[in-house]
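Notes to self after the Tuesday call (sharing in case useful).
The group wants a holo model before anyone commits to mutagenesis around the pocket. I volunteered. Ligand is WTA. Logging inputs and output together so the record is complete.
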Amino acid sequence: MQITSFNQYEEDYKKSIENPEQFWGEVAQNFQWRKPWFKVLSWNFNEPDIKWFEGAKLNITENCLDRHLEKNGDKPAIIWEPNNPEEESVTLTYKMLHERVCRFANVLKRNGAKKGDRICIYMPMVPELAIAVLACARIGAVHSVIFGGFSAKSIADRINDSQCKLVITADGAYRGNKQIPLKDVIDDALIGCPTVEKCIVLTHVRTPVSMLKGRDVWWEDEVKHVNDICEAEEMDAEDMLFILYTSGSTGKPKGVVHTCGGYMVYAGYTFTNVFNYQPGEVYFCTADIGWITGHSYIVYGPLSQGATSVLFEGIPTYPNASRFWDIVEKHKVNTLYTAPTAIRSLMSFGEEPLQGKDLSSIRVLGSVGEPINEEAWHWFDEKIGHGKAPIVDTWWQTETGGIMISPIATVTPTKPSYATLPLPGIQPILVDENGKEIEGNGVSGNLCIKFPWPGMLRTTYGDHERCKQTYFSTYENLYFTGDGCLRDEDGYYRITGRVDDVLNVSGHRIGTAEVENAINMHAGVVESAVVGYPHDVKGQGIYAFVINPEMHGEAELTKKDILQTVTRVIGAIAKPDKILFVFGLPKTRSGKIMRRILRKIAEGDTANLGDTSTLLDPGVVEEIIAASKALK
Ligand code: WTA
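Result:
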């Protein structure tokens, strides 16, 4: 199933469009099924109702673990690199990983978990996180991993939305020189989570934690009570595999649902192709398993292909800006898959951190999460790849399950800042505001996908209507991505950014409405409006316009109070970079905030505000501009 020439890509692409069922049916043969499907695909984008590999039975962990045991049992599956470089790294072979997953799966059962139950995972980037994820899949429980940067309230909302029965966490996490008290955060969250019966706590930093009798148990104790034999649960191809919450243009994050069969095929197929993975190579994806990139390209994709994957606990700048390069040298990394924000941040340290580092093992580079600017692309290409490693700029989303538009390493000619061409099976289309297709090349529009692919979301948990409204109602019979896109003269795609009210801050998706709701919860705040603005390292920064007539002490202190509120309500990742106190917001006569104007002000482009005649009170704009100029 690996594509090795551009000719083959073109042939496969053609086949995948002309006969998608035959194409994906053949790809799926490369995986292990307990029972084959009777129908490859049935679909309807209006409902939406999408089924892949109907009737087939499988367990994804048999594909990620068991099937490698005989030939590759002693091959490293995961190489764990701890936050502290002085500490030893840990290698888990496929045999060891299989054993630990089975053992922990028995721990889950012992604590009452069974097929279909939802389990929340809130953990540091340690091997036990991957083990917890796979153990859920082993017994057919649905995991909902929450990124370690989210607050207690965010966790509680997510746990309650999917009625999780169990939580898996750790006492704490290391992130650079910081320590994050994960269990404390979970304790706060669980005050408002009546469905949670058990909480399994891994010892990692050995910080004091409260352990509630009857609810909380230690990971290390539990594994002593069970053996490591656990038959995998037989799952239907369309049974739920996991839920992953993501932000949209409305306030509440939604639980994107992925199912077992299609997701497995898509994650595995895209992994092996996009990165041109070769047996024995070491692959390093710097994402966190709390996001979709970690799900698909640290856990399921690489493991389903028997790959060796580096799992890194820390951050690129700890203990210094050489850390990534030290890891590359130490583990002889062949593929490095990271985010533009990390590249830009490391670029800013200059060449010194690269001095004397041996990066000669690198063969393929990857980028994900946000548009990569040309400067970062060239730096990555020259300084890290030495002009020899193809860069795969991979465009995709939590909802797509896997990479959609991307070069195929060593196959597709790359072009700086372009995600280039759709992978086989992916049928992108650009539409105008009215949903009319924009044909030809040298055009731009809103990016939609017109045909299903196996890795696509099936629903949003507990609210199918919301899934329909968000993705399938904007344009008839199309999946709407929320991204703007251009297609150049060569037919190459370049993603230009979100066209809805979703921000992309350091590759993290954050809804403006979500941040506004959090700010509005602060006592004293009357109203707020949040927009993004270009930020050198983060890609986008968060700019909040806030009406708060009564300051508590100095304005600067009140700003800090507001930041604290946002940290409590969402998490530190959603903290505005700039807060501007204003007396009014630019609104239309019907009361709608004109964000277009606020975006211009946030960008510092106040000379081109466009038409302001429909504003209820144009004077407000003058006042905001004056105040914004005084803001540092
Ligand atoms: C953006 C991350 C440009 C895009 C896998 C998308 C990108 C959102 C790229 C999804 C890319 C992701 N070039 N933009 N290569 N990759 N995006 O759900 O706006 O966290 O809609 O999934 O990130 O973010 P999510």
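Two things stood out.
Residues 61-84+92-233 form a domain with the Rossmann fold fold (CATH 3.40.50.980).
The mean pLDDT is 97.
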